[in-house]
Write a structure and sequence with these properties.
about 425 residues; alpha/beta; five-stranded mixed β-sheet
């Protein structure tokens, strides 16, 4: 089951999107909706009291008291014993608990698989990286490796007495609502039923298994945990094998009609430019994706064969840039200009407050940003690029972190976990 969708008794199918702010309601499953309201308020405003929740949400005090008791019983929130300094009777304060639970996120990277587990409050329980070149092997081999990494992560958190609430996998490509990948050109994938095959490999686990694009999940992580947390209009631009845009517009993840929004990596900036894995020429991915950057700045890199481990090459580029190597610094400035042209398109189409650069863009940001910002200012139509800021992400493994965050969606929407 996709981590963004759940089926609830009494109201039919309920679509869950953790970007939607829950509101008290008299329709459908009222208790589920109100439970979500209480959980969200505690997450955003803890420590807070029962009276605070009632006053700020519009729920009556008896309803809040009943819901809080239920959530404490489920160990989703807990009392801290702290009291507020105010006139009248001291109030017991509430914070998120969630200690018995964990959510998992996986990410297929340029040369690695990443697993992240978090608790209900977003605290990291583990971050694992496994060297793996997914673009050089079959989808079946990649899914087998993902399943093995998942089993290890599940074993670690369940050994701590935690129940896994869900798992979401980030793929650098198009993902449809069923969790299948119709196309991931950077990996050479077509029509891969990732969610179904991963569930089968895990022997139909009790927790939900969802799939989304790495870009969407990174944007979710940025909105929840990053330097611009709470932003209502931002874009996270992912790097690695493919370039993708995860778009938060009006506080919500922008998916498009079939879930394929954000594929800016295949915007052709130079039709006579280098070939792209998608079959076109001069795409943004072909100009600023990690393989393209490594080939441009380290011409000797493929003398011994194709690169499957990009970390040493990225480390080498950073070292040369710090030494002011003219070839590397010039190549990074050129990459920054290409990047700025792509961001200018985003600024004109979406008018985001911030575009955040992730993955290798963040690593190389000190040398990319000056040229990219200059190009953005010169090419965006609106004065001052419409107020769009271009910044480097401070998050590590944002796609996997966003996957774990997405896996919390069912509980955050008010559904009680099965323990």
């Amino acid at each position: 089951m996709d981590a963004r969708r759940d089926t609830g008794a009494g109201s039919g199918q309920i679509v869950i999107n953790i970007h939607n702010e829950p509101q008290p309601t008299d329709l459908g499953d009222v208790r589920v909706a109100n439970r979500a309201v209480v959980l969200r308020h505690v997450r955003l405003h803890a420590p807070c009291s029962r009276a605070d929740i009632a006053a700020r949400t519009g729920l009556n005090k008896a309803t809040v008291s009943s819901l809080v008791t239920e959530l404490i019983d489920q160990r989703l929130i807990r009392e801290t014993g702290l009291t507020e300094n105010r006139v009248g009777r001291p109030a017991t304060m509430l914070v998120l608990d969630g200690e018995p639970y964990a959510a998992l996120g996986l990410q297929i990277g340029a040369d690695e698989l990443v697993a992240v587990a978090i608790d209900l409050g977003g605290n990291r329980l583990l971050t694992w990286r496994r060297a793996f070149a997914a673009s050089t092997v079959s989808p079946t081999e990649t899914l087998r490796a993902l399943a093995a990494l998942t089993r290890r992560a599940v074993g670690r958190v369940t050994a701590q007495g935690r129940t896994v609430l869900g798992l979401t996998v980030g793929v650098p490509g198009l993902v449809d609502p069923s969790g299948a990948v119709p196309l991931a050109s950077a990996l050479g994938w077509r029509d891969v039923p990732v969610a179904a095959e991963l569930r089968a490999a895990l022997r139909e686990p009790e927790f939900a298994v969802g799939v989304d694009s790495v870009a969407n999940l990174a944007a979710l992580a940025e909105q929840r945990h990053g330097g611009y947390a709470g932003g209502t209009d931002l874009v996270h631009l992912t790097g690695g094998l493919a370039v993708g845009a995860g778009i938060i517009a009006g506080g919500r993840l922008l998916r498009g009609g079939r879930g394929f929004a954000g594929e800016i990596g295949h915007l052709s900036l130079d039709p006579s430019g280098p070939p792209c894995p998608c079959g076109n020429h001069g795409c943004l991915t072909a100009l600023v994706g990690l393989p393209a950057v490594v080939r441009r700045l380290l011409p000797d890199v493929e003398a011994d064969g194709p690169v499957t481990d990009y970390l040493p090459e990225l480390t080498r580029i950073v070292a040369l840039a710090r030494q002011d190597d003219p070839g590397v610094c010039g190549g990074l400035a050129e990459t920054g200009r290409h990047l700025g042209r792509g961001v200018a398109v985003l600024a004109d189409l979406l008018n985001p407050e911030t575009v955040v650069l992730g993955d290798h863009f963040a690593t190389l940001a000190p040398w990319l940003l000056p040229a990219a910002r200059s190009e953005l200012a010169a090419r965006a139509h609106a004065p001052g690029a419409g107020g769009c800021r271009l910044e480097a992400s401070t998050l590590d493994t944002a796609g996997a972190l966003g996957g774990a965050t997405a896996a919390l969606a069912t509980v955050e929407a008010g559904r009680l976990p099965v323990r």
